[in-house]
Amino acid sequence: MSDGIVAIVVTYNRPDGLLNCLKAIEDQTKKVDAVYIIDNASYGTTVRVLRDYCYIKTLPDINKQERQTDSTVYNGIKIHYLRLPENVGESGGLSEGLKFAQNNRYKWYWLLTDDCLPEDITLEELAKEAADPGTAYIPDNFDINEKSLIVRDKVVTTEKSEKITFKGALLNNKIIETAGYPEISFYMYRTEDEYSLRLKKHGFNIVMVTNSIIYHPKDISLSHEKLKAYFQKRILYYNLRNSLRINRIYPGYHSFGAKFKYFTISVIFFCLLRWDLLYIMRKAVKDEKKNKMFKSKY
User: Which of 98, 81, 100, 95 is CA-nearest to residue 39?
Assistant: First the structure.
């Protein structure tokens, strides 16, 4: 097994963000052994950008409903590309990426998404503290506009955390083999909560390395009113459904129980005459009960 570190980057229709993330990985003072790009069935722009910038050699057929791979070397770094036949969400992409990368038996995996902008010392700071294979090491995450708030040269550079983030986590192969992969059936939202509880169940720790920093650009996807309404329903549905599932797997996860929270919020929305959101909430409860997980139409 290689002692090196590989980066796994999940992307979906953010070609500019992906390029920025890949450039930031290339500029790390601590070099990675390889980069695994997991494409969640993006549209044609993403793959053309990857080809034009030489991160892949050949264009995949975006109309093919099958897994497609490509490998090359870019500025001395091995690049492995996997295109999935459908969008399986962030956690699903990371899960598939980990399985893909484990074929080459690496020791450490650096998890990233295409909206991550690590500083050039981000991985070095993580690796500096990564002495325990039974600990998940995570960076501190900031909005790109919060740079001025960051305190450098802290006396205490690590602190225990209750929750993992998939945006920059450094995981040892021991954790993956024992605790498994991020939960693909959640599709989105609450995936990090579930994995954090799973790590705790298996006796693993989560440590934040405060000198290791990742920035995120402001999300402009909610600038349109129709998009706001769409995302509001999507966030409500997946948050509630997956919270109920977590409560089923890990009883006591919510202090008053997820169903109590659902009832309380239902009453609030009922009073506000938000029937559309009440319908979404009822569907989330029914789908979880009937084990209708992964993606859903609502």
Answer: 81
